[in-house]
Write the structure tokens for this entry.
Amino acid sequence: MKKTLKKIMMLMLCMSLCACSNPAKHEDAVTSSPTSFAEEKTSFSITDQTGRVVEFDDVAQTAASGYYIVTTTLIGLGCADNLVGVEMKADSRKIYSAAAPQIIELPSLGNKKNFNLEECVAADPDVVFLPVSLQDYVAQLEEMDMKVILLNPETSQSFDEAVDIIAKIMGKEDIAEQYFAYRDELIGKYIKEVEQKKRVYFAGGDVLEAVGGAMFQNELIKQAQGEYVFQDSLANVNSWQTINIEEIIAADPEYIFIEQDGISVEDILNDPSLSEITAVKDGHVYVFPSEYETWDTPNLSSCLGILWMYATLYPERLSLTDVATEANAFYQQFYGFDAQIVIE
């Protein structure tokens, strides 16, 4: 509302000045002003990831983020100082403490299930980024003259689309282009096509909780030249699925990767019911790295997860030392701190 009133006042002021001006000068202004206005106009529209079209008069100077994927992307695109509100438990994110400690003290706006409207209104952001799970809050925010963008970056393609959307709204398209070029060069430098791909299983909170074939983690497996053992049976599944012990034994993966905060490596290696699985017999069971943030989820650093998985599957092709070197360079370039990551 404040922004609308401000625009009305500015319009009234311009009309008043025009009415009081010299007629000859006014005629000159009419002739020249259309070109000038067209040159200065920076308005644009954005189609968010639910198909909503949102109009912007200019790039946003301030932003509120309703969840981690957006917040860490904003920081990586150089927008840490533009944030005026972030998701709950920001102080538990090591990446925030290292790259943008100032955001930890910002208003806490909620999580993927609930959103704090009062705190958001008080923060008065130019744009509010929310996950699709919070779309029920859109109408209330729009009634308060707020721009709302809904995002659903759950696959590689949709994450890249989300980065493009965020970058355009915040006027950081140049940094987004730098990131995509950096990522393509990084992957192209190290990842080479493998003819005989290693068979991989990806577990969640429990060894029998399998990643769906349509989930982001399976895309990482493919890019790292692995073959997901449930690629066919869970091909179109975009959520974690419970399987039975017979299925994983029959699949006989050569490598098992575990989501951070899931079942431990020791629990899998010491489970007698899994002892005949090749990955267990060979000791090829690993938890995905998460020194600053998890590398197996949609975020700018997931390219490091691809490198790490590739080096784990094919150590003769890429060393973990080189992965650590590239990880440190990545965090220095996009997050501005010395990560000092060591991978063993």
